[in-house]
Design brief:
Blueprint: H1 21-28, H2 35-64, H3 68-96, H4 99-123, H5 128-156, H6 162-191, H7 193-212, H8 227-240, H9 242-274, H10 277-300, H11 306-315, H12 318-325, H13 330-358, H14 364-376, H15 379-393, H16 395-411, H17 417-420, H18 426-438
Helix pairs in contact: 2-3, 2-5, 2-6, 2-7, 3-5, 3-8, 3-14, 4-5, 4-7, 5-14, 6-7, 6-10, 6-13, 8-14, 9-12, 9-14, 9-15, 9-16, 10-13, 11-13, 11-16, 12-13, 12-16, 15-16
Membrane topology: Multi-pass membrane protein
Main location: membrane
Keywords: Cell membrane, Membrane, Transmembrane, Transmembrane helix
């Protein structure tokens, strides 16, 4: 859908009427008038408030048990590995059954698990292996939740409103991230980590209640074909779209490089060159501010050439790594990090909308699982290799190489005409679907 305040290609000679900001905002928030989307949005917001404070509570819970950084790393890894192993299965399950039911059970399991963790911590009976097991259980449940949640918007929001719906979800998620870590730290200091984990469990339980009210029907197709066949069909759909797997390959480079450069090596840079945690905290705040700004920009602006927008937004993530490699002033680093957050938020909103328009809803969760897996699979390797590489070549050289890798990844997909021509036009999506249906398997 073309937003009414954006000109069409054929209106270059005609004057473009000015649309009041209030009108733009009202139309941009239109998905919230749809009850199922409002339930979904509220449930996600509740979950995000828990997710924003939980990492601080978990970190201090593990450290309070005397496990140190290695113990915390073990707990965090236990949450990631099951997601990688089960993500493809989660995509098949989400396409076969009611996505709402999948999300309900995920939240129920995590509410119970985190509730047990909170009680154990409060009673002083918790051990590190308890937290590892609970983290693994929630990570496994998350492998089913992510593909299901990614497909809900297409079921509850009309096609012409999906872009705004994705932007609203991104605004909600990123807004919570701004204050989450600070609130989590304050709660840990005031009440202890057990109460923070308890709040995390409560948000899962409340979200489960709201998801249960969505009442989405299960898929009606391919219910008897078997999991292996469903996985193969998902792969065939994924591989048949050159633009899709090329963009996922881009993410397979950018995601691990960014996580290593910003989340892992960034604090080391802050300690070595910026004077400590306070200055690095300013950089992190700039990034979260950029995420909110980008989501707000995406809500008010619907681009035409979305492939180009996604690539340019991804390329903006090279700016902070380059600024650190060049040891630019703190103010410049903060601005570049804000730009990275803005570009990332816009590109993620556009990317979600593109997949929802181009992929049939009965196969969307499987496609999302392949897309996500392709981007996160190299992450553990990046974490393992980053330490030795930075020790061998130096911190700044490693950051410079990361910035160069992201820039290269930005340009490579644009060499493909399909990527440059990608739009959110429904007619083009229908034409692509028709070609794929008639293509030999």
């Amino acid at each position: 859908m073309r937003m009414p305040w954006l000109p069409s290609r054929n209106s270059a000679s005609a004057p473009v009427p000015r649309i009041p900001l209030r009108t733009r905002t009202t139309e941009a928030c239109a998905p919230l008038a749809i009850r199922p989307f409002r339930l979904h949005f509220t449930a996600r917001m509740l979950s995000w408030t828990g997710s924003a404070v939980a990492p601080v509570g978990l970190a201090f819970a593990v450290l309070g048990l005397g496990a140190g950084a290695s113990g915390l790393g073990l707990v965090l890894a236990a949450g990631v590995v099951p997601q990688i192993l089960l993500l493809l299965i989660g995509g098949v399950v989400a396409d076969r059954f009611s996505r709402a039911r999948v999300m309900v059970w995920k939240n129920v399991l995590c509410a119970a698990a985190e509730g047990v963790a909170a009680v154990l911590l409060w009673a002083g009976s918790a051990r590190v292996w308890h937290l590892v097991a609970i983290s693994a259980l929630c990570g496994a449940a998350g492998a089913f939740f992510a593909p299901a949640a990614g497909g809900v918007v297409v079921e509850v929001v009309p096609g012409e409103m999906r872009y705004q719906a994705n932007a609203l979800l991104k605004i909600g998620q990123n807004s919570v991230k701004v204050a989450g870590p600070a609130v989590g730290g304050a709660l840990v200091a005031a009440f202890g980590p057990s109460w923070v984990i308890g709040w995390y469990a409560a948000t899962f339980a409340a979200a489960a209640v709201l998801f249960a009210r969505l009442d989405l029907a299960p898929a009606r197709t391919k219910l008897r074909t078997g999991f292996v066949r469903d996985l193969k069909d998902g792969w065939d759909d994924f591989w048949a779209r050159s633009w899709l797997w090329v963009m996922v390959l881009q993410g397979a480079v950018v995601v691990p490089v960014w996580l290593v450069g910003y989340q892992m090596l960034g604090p080391v840079y802050g300690d070595r060159y910026l004077g400590g945690a306070a200055a690095w905290g300013l950089v992190v705040s700039a990034f979260t501010g950029g995420l909110v700004l980008g989501a707000a920009m995406a809500l008010m602006w619907k681009p035409s050439r979305v492939g180009v927008v996604v690539c340019v937004g991804t390329g903006a993530m090279s700016l902070p790594l380059a600024a650190m490699a060049l040891t630019l002033p703190l103010a410049v680093l903060a601005v570049s990090t804000c730009a990275a957050g803005t570009g990332l938020s816009v590109s993620m909103t556009v990317w979600s909308s593109l997949l929802q328009e181009r992929i049939p809803k009965e196969r969307l969760s499987r496609i999302l699982s392949y897309s996500t897996l392709g981007q996160v699979l190299p992450v553990p390797l990046g974490y393992v290799a980053a330490g030795p590489v930075s020790a061998l070549f130096g911190l700044r050289a490693t950051l410079a190489a990361g910035a160069a890798a992201i820039v290269a990844a930005m340009f490579v997909p644009l060499m493909l005409s399909q990527v440059r021509a990608l739009t959110l036009a429904p007619a083009e999506a229908e034409a692509e679907a028709a070609v794929l249906v008639t293509a030999p398997r």
